[in-house]
Structures are given as structure tokens and as C-alpha cells.
Amino acid sequence: MLRSLHVFLFVILISIVSAGYQTVRVYGKLTCKGQPYGGAKIKLYDHDTFTLDDKLAEGRSNADGTFDLEGMGNERTRLNVKMNIYHRCDKTIPLCYYKHSFPIPYSYISAGPRATNPYNVQTLELSMIEKERDCFNKK
Q: Which residue spans adopt a coiled-coil conformation according to this UniProt entry (predicted)?
């Protein structure tokens, strides 16, 4: 009986430890009215239903509009990744940022510490995508 309990606890421990890391990498280019848009804040999150989202990575677009972010999470279930872009493209009064959020397909999430299938969002024209106002991400 005690041996069975030890085996059971060992199996549980192994399953917890082996839940493992999942990694996502997203890259692309941002433009505003056809011009490269540098300085946009980009964040990758694991979207959680019942708790706060977990931030996986954060960065900014380069002067030429390009960005490349890789983030890693340790979840027992599949990561539910979304990318948020904060910018001021086409904004006349710079009090707040515009925010655009969209999901990253599951097929671009890799098991392990390195992303093996990066997601290329191509070129995103910020003046043309649906957005909302965000006054909390000011830096």
C-alpha cells in the first residue's frame, strides 16, 4: 500500500515537473501611413480566463519598423498567446496610445525553451487596423 502511494506521488511529481516550457516568437514590421513606425510598444501575453494575463515578452519596434519578440511560459495547458501593440500612429493629440490586440495561432507555439516555428505577421499598417484607446501604457 505504501509503495503504491510512493509510485502515485512520484508520477504526480513527474507530471508537474514535465509540464514544461512553451515558447512563441513573433516578428514583422510596423508602418504608419506607409512609413516605418519605430518606437511602438509590443507585448506578448498568455491570456488567462480566470486570472490575470501573464506577460511573456515586451519590446519596441526599431527605427525601421521591424520587431522580433520571443517569450516563454510554463503552463500545464497550452498557451493562449495574444500580441498587443501600443502606438500613436495617426493620433493628433498624444495623451493616450492606441492599442491593437490579436491572437497568435496555436500552431506557432513550440514546446521547449526555443521557438521552432516563428510567426511572421508581415507588415502591419497601423493606420488601417482596428484599435482602441489605452491610457495606461504611457512609457
A: none
Residues near 88 by beta carbon (within 8 Å), at least 6 away in sequence: 94, 97, 98
Residue 33: inside a domain: yes
Q: pLDDT per residue over 42-88, tens digit each? A: 999 998 777 788 899 999 999 999 999 999 998 777 889 999 999 99
64's CB contacts (< 8 A; 6+ apart) are 29, 36, 38
Q: How far apart are CA 69 and CA 119, in angstroms?
A: 10
Per the rule left: phi > 0, alpha: psi between -120 and 50, beta: everything else, 122 is left
pLDDT mean over 75-103: 87
DSSP per-residue letters across 45-107: EE--SSSPPEEEEEEE--TTSEEEEEEEEE-SS---EEEEEEE-TT-SSTTSEEEEEEEPPGG
